[in-house]
Amino acid sequence: MATTHDDLLDALVVPPAFSRYDRITDTTTISDTQAWKSRVLPTLSQLDVSSSSLSTAEQAKLVRVLAPLTASAPWTSLRSRTLAATLLATISPTPALVTYTLSNVVKPLFAATPHPRLHLTTARALSRPADAQDTYHHQPWKDHPGLEEVLRWCILNTQSPTYEQIWPLILPPTMTFLDDYEVPYKVLGVHLVSDMLTRVPPELLLRTGVDALLFTSLTNALNHLRDPSTPELIRAAVPTTLQLIDLTTPSLFPNASSLPLSTDDTGAASSKDLSLTLSPSLHRSLATRFNRLSTLLSSSILGTVVLYTPTVVPSEPAPIVDPFSDQEHMASESESEPFTTQPIQGARPSISAPHPILAAAAHVLPPVISALGVGATRFLKGVVPVVVGWLALPVSTPVSVRPTIDPSERRGEPNQSQESVDGPFALHLAALHVVHVLIDTCPLRIARWATTITDGLARCWVNCVDAVTTNTPPPQLGQLQGRLKGVALELANACPHVVRNEFTKLLEFDRMLFDGLVGSICTTSGDDATPGSAMVTNNSSTATSQTV
Length: 548
What we know:
Number of helices: 22
Order of helices and strands: HHHHHHHHHHHHHHHHHHHHHH
Largest sheet: none
Helix content: 40-55%
């Protein structure tokens, strides 16, 4: 009997077992999932979507089946993803089709557990959670692997003018992903929010109060520190939070020269505070922007991720239950098993291996500091000692990270070498980048911390020299040493006194050891420096006071 169009589509529906694929132990289930995956490409090759007589319901079914097959997930291969994306691109994303897909494919799966912080009809943010049943007790949407790709297709194919009409359909499932208690689903939710922010009008976010709700959910996501997917969550959540802040609040202070200044009786411009010339709405927007950036840096990154993450990976990590997960739901007898937290996979790191969560935190610090601009000076007391502590860590052991997806297919991250994120010396290189951004952003105040930063650079340099003398020096050690010299030069350009004081003291202590780090800098600046002037004493506090 000939295979019908509907039979082909039914055969391409992703089996529910893939939603817990990494925890399957039954050999029969594993064999069944692999057998289904092997049949996907031949089945896709037989599928014909060129007919123009397909109804809206039939097109929505095609989207429901094809969109999950475009995901970088265990149930797809590169060839099947390419073919599925090609077939999906032939479907015209009309507003009627997007609305039908959201109403009849996506919404029914989330109807049983509405989001408690959203109005059911308007999707406006509620001032307090609604009295509703347990949103985590029954989650049928988790039995549909790849459902987030259907939602992403609707998000990316909705233009800004029509977003308000489908807002009650598109926001609740997105927020359900983002606020789920399992970290892998949170990661999917963060990516959905990032895609949504590229299309949604900022006025809609502000008018419905969803901007504040999204900010709270994104920053709360950084509280989950006991899951193997936490590094990926941090690298996704922080850029998305910055994306939200840039969209809903102005990113640049108005040009002072263009602001109208009041004049006195002589016609000369008075010295009136420029902040008084700002409109009340713009003043509130700028204040909101600074407050949210400050909360992201001080409370979420420094006060949560950095504070509660051990500096190094324990030598024998044990499975730990996430304290933010609900034990009642984890013990549920439902067919959908919860994600359990396991130790970081791969080769067991040494006791000196920097924690991959800290490497992720260091990776996202520079854009937050850059967004704050000169306002980051108030956080130097919290950032600089942390970064210097990272630089002082041993460099002989690379960071051990369990990749959650193919590194070449990471979603939503800027184009960069994967080794700069997860490779050897990821934490040290990221820390040096943080120092570079601090020097560039806060040049007038970084002099106060020149001694502390020099101490971190020197300690890291000594660790590099020690690593070179071993029988098997770590790879990419030369890159780290080159970056150390580059940051030392940047510090010398921003704070010339550091050459006469700290750098000279390093050479006096051990010229052979530190010549590679600061020797050329001191030689270049030697003609401009007066011998013995402003020389630091052995007391480091005196050196700091002279710097100030």
